[in-house]
């Protein structure tokens, strides 16, 4: 008998800006993602202030889910998906973010997508803002650095809540909100890059600005959650964090304390605010030592208390080590940095593979918050190859996912209330960090390449059939 609950939400996850394409179709405005060129592990993608004819912008076509959603959702249904985590492109609904009235064509597109999901019995899990800040808000207000964005975001939320109240039950306010604590998060998350042009990894870091922007996002999230609870009590509202599991590299007490501090600020800070409804005690010293002084309105603390989320979701790809010692080897990863763990192997992109770290993370999260938990991103980015037989034999991906699902099962036995699992990029899409297609995660291969060529045809990989069996047996058959 499976250890997973009978109504466990097996599925997959994608983001609008990374797979929809149709970047300017039917009234859609440009998002910050649309202003980013392609890149690679060796050469970073760029943010440009205007669209340059000599550069390639992968989100403009992506994999064209906009025109192929019926085919793709049918493939998800063939795998047996119970849920599909996707996002709404803010600029499809409000092209600049500042309009008084929404774009009806954009609303109609998601009507069709959610209806298609429901036709196959697939529960939509919708991220309201997933790395697609309207570029006009970057230019006008420097993104979330300005408190005015709270009202614009709430208008957007109220519009989609009302429109899709009968189609969508599960909502996440911001994707990987703690990415806003990282310099690269200024492009991905907070949009605090007005006037900047250049590589995404070279944005000037302004701690005061990014934490002020995060405060505005916290308030906006809490207001959206409270509004949903008041007007649509059947909604379930969640947060979404990167969980970057970290271990002390050595038993040196200095390493242990540094690891604790890293955990507090990177893994716990944002979710403490969104789940517990208040700034945690440890931020006081951090803010003082880093010269951060938040500007709050008198009602903000009450808003945060009243707008706590119903369930916790997170992405988990890897773990890192933390040390105070000099000269240790660095590791690369998903926005977060750290040091290499000598006990772990790494992916082609240098991400350390640590299935047991997922069990550890689940126990830490549930032990801290005691609310239902969902893993909404997990997966292996790899250079898949179309073999001579016309297929993709991705046993390495199956091995990665099998090991992580095994550890999820152990966490459930440990007592964690785990309610769902949506591996990332269930169909190949554009990488958020590098802007390339070569870093593939999907169960479905898409013939689209980094130079923009490809006929966009879809092809199930070996992992497609393996995951179908996993879902059909509720996680029992992982062979």
Summarize the structure.
The protein has helices at 16-19, 65-79, 90-93, 104-119, 135-141, 148-163, 185-190, 207-231, 253-276, 282-289, 300-306, 355-369, 395-413, 462-472, and strands at 9-13, 46-47, 83-87, 123-129, 170-174, 198-199, 236-238, 241-242, 245-248, 312-315, 319-322, 330-331, 338-339, 345-346, 352-353, 373-377, 418-421, 444-446, 458-460.
Could you characterize the architecture of this molecule?
By secondary structure, the chain is an alpha/beta fold. 37% of the residues lie in helices and 14% in strands. The chain contains 14 helices and 19 strands. It has helices at 16-19, 65-79, 90-93, 104-119, 135-141, 148-163, 185-190, 207-231, 253-276, 282-289, 300-306, 355-369, 395-413, 462-472; strands at residues 9-13, 46-47, 83-87, 123-129, 170-174, 198-199, 236-238, 241-242, 245-248, 312-315, 319-322, 330-331, 338-339, 345-346, 352-353, 373-377, 418-421, 444-446, 458-460. The longest helix is centred in the middle third of the chain and has 25 residues, at 207-231. 51% of the residues are buried.
Question: How would you describe this structure in keywords?
Answer:
479 residues, alpha/beta, 9-stranded parallel beta sheet, two-stranded antiparallel sheet, 19 strands, globular
Strand order of the largest sheet: 7-5-4-3-1-17-16-10-8
Helix amount, in percent?
Answer: 25-40%
Number of strands: 19
Quaternary structure of the protein = single chain
């Amino acid at each position: 008998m499976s250890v997973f609950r009978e109504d466990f939400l097996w599925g997959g996850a994608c983001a609008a800006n990374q797979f929809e394409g149709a970047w300017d179709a039917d009234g859609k405005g440009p998002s910050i993602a649309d202003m980013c060129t392609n890149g690679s592990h060796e050469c970073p993608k760029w943010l440009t202030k205007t669209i340059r004819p000599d550069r390639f912008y992968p989100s403009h076509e992506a994999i064209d889910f906009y025109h192929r959603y019926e085919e793709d959702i049918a493939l998800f249904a063939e795998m047996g998906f119970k849920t599909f985590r996707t996002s709404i492109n803010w600029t499809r609904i409000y092209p600049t973010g500042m309009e008084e009235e929404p774009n009806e064509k954009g609303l109609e597109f998601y009507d069709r997508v959610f209806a298609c999901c429901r036709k196959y019995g697939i529960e939509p899990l919708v991220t309201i803002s997933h790395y697609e800040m309207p570029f006009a808000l970057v230019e006008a207000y420097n993104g979330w650095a300005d408190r005015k964005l709270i009202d614009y975001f709430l208008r957007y939320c109220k519009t989609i809540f009302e429109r899709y109240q009968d189609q969508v039950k599960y909502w996440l306010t911001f994707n990987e909100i703690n990415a806003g604590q990282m310099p690269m998060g200024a492009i991905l998350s907070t949009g605090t890059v007005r006037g900047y042009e250049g590589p995404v990894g070279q944005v000037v870091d302004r701690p005061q600005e990014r934490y002020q922007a995060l405060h505005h996002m916290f308030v906006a999230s809490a207001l959206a959650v409270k509004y949903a609870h008041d007007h649509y009590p059947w909604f379930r509202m969640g947060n979404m964090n990167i969980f970057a599991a970290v271990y002390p590299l050595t038993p040196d007490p200095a390493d242990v304390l540094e690891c604790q501090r890293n955990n507090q600020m990177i893994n716990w800070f944002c979710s403490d605010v969104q789940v517990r409804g208040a700034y945690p005690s440890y931020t006081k010293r951090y803010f003082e030592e880093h010269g951060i002084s938040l500007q709050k309105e008198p009602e903000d603390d009450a808003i945060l208390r009243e707008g706590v989320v119903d369930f916790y979701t997170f992405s988990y790809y890897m773990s890192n080590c933390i040390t105070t010692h000099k000269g240790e080897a660095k590791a690369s990863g998903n926005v977060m940095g750290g040091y290499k763990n000598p006990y772990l192997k790494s992916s082609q992109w240098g991400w350390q593979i640590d299935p047991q770290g997922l069990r550890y993370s689940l126990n830490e999260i549930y032990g801290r918050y005691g609310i239902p938990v969902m893993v909404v991103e997990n997966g292996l980015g790899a250079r898949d190859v179309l073999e001579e037989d016309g297929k993709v034999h991705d046993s390495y991906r199956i091995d990665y996912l099998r090991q992580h699902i095994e550890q999820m099962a152990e966490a459930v036995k440990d007592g964690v209330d785990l309610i769902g699992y949506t591996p990332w990029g269930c169909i190949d899409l554009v990488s958020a960090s590098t802007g390339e297609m070569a870093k593939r995660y999907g169960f479905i291969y898409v013939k689209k390449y980094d130079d923009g060529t490809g006929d966009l045809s879809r092809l199930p990989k070996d992992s497609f059939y393996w995951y179908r069996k996993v879902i059909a047996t509720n996680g029992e058959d992982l062979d």
